[in-house]
Amino acid sequence: MVKVVNTAGTHIWARALLDGGSQINLITERLVQRLRVQKNIEYHRLGGIGKAQHASQHSVHLTIHSHCTTFKASWKFHVLSDVTWDQPSHAVDPKGLNLPKGVKLADPQFHEPGPIDLLIGREGFNDLLLGNILRLDNPKLLLQNTELGWIVSGQEYVRRIWKRWNTDYLSGLQPRTRWTAKRNNIQEGTMVLVKEENLPPLKWRLGRVQTIKPGKDGLVRVVDVRTKDGTYRRAISKICVLPGQKDDKME
């Protein structure tokens, strides 16, 4: 949790996610409206997992204050409708973590799912981290000291993030209906995931459509997909097209 100053000089509480892998900082449109800060027109294309693409049309400059220390910093944030899904993906029992007494958490409600308002990327990530690390009874979790307070981190949280991405994102890529009506045709060169019934989605192979096989009606229902392990012929229902790519439209 951090405090952000609005146009009236009032501190607004916001929930932030630290991401050392992000090259930029992000903020939700919802928080921008709460702060009533001026938005600057600035187009920025964002790339993510599976080459997914999004675009931010605006940016804002904010001053972030820690509620645990005297730390404050001013950074630019790019505006998106949403930064990510609620974190954590489900409630965690903090009693089972045996947190040390006297540790001042950056987010005292870290165990309760809630919306993320800000993502602080590499620009601020290095400035925020302090040297102290405490390992918890759970070998997959640890406490990292930061200028914002102590944060819970480790493999277990990463695993839950990937599990949630698997459920909400990959499952949404799978076709829900048969192609019985004219719609976008897949193109050669399209990046896809090859669905494997005996494997979880996170282990599906990434491939590129090499050849399309249109039917008599002009609709593509079968494709040849080239992966690092070879080329496979698959029905459209057995692949997931990754977003952010252009498809040909049937006229």
UniProtKB/TrEMBL annotation:
Domain DUF5641: 155-242
Lineage top rank: taxon: Eukaryota
One Pfam family it belongs to: DUF5641
Name of the featured protein: DUF5641 domain-containing protein
